[in-house]
Amino acid sequence: MVNRATSLRRTTTGAEAKLWTVLRGARLNGWKFRRQHPIDRFVVDFACLKAKLVVEVDGATHGSPAERDRDAERTRVIEAAGFQVIRIGNTDIRDTLDGVLQSILAAVVGRDHV
Fold this sequence. Notes:
Blueprint: H1 2-10, H2 14-23, E1 34-39, E2 42-48, E3 53-58, H3 65-80, E4 84-89, H4 90-95, H5 97-110
Parallel strand pairs: 3-4
Antiparallel strand pairs: 1-2, 2-3
Protein name: DUF559 domain-containing protein
InterPro entries: DUF559, Endonuclease_DUF559_bact, Restrct_endonuc-II-like
Domain DUF559: 3-107
């Protein structure tokens, strides 16, 4: 799983790279995020371990019925590990990054007691 996470870090999407520039180094109000972090049998896009929050970045392929089923199973497993999962679309990151960051910040603050 660690090898897969390392590989995914090398092949990041444009939206993931853009979001990572503002999440890395605890730049979001001091909240530390990890990129391509293993949880159970999955590697998640971003994880804030302190708040037990996962941020998944979804592209156009996540709209198909098969991908929605796969994402639902993935979310179920990650939530069973105690994490909340939020999904952000590539276009949202591209078009409304400030709004995306506000949503993520609200989620981590809301999970701070976990």
